[in-house]
Amino acid sequence: MIEISKAVIQKNGKFLLLKRASHSKSYPNMWDFAGGKHDAGETPEQSVIREVKEETAFDLDPGPEVKTIHYQDEQFDLLFHYFIPKNISGSLKISPDHSEYKWFTKKEVNFLKLHPAVKEYFK
Question: Which pTM was predicted?
Answer without folding.
Answer: 0.94
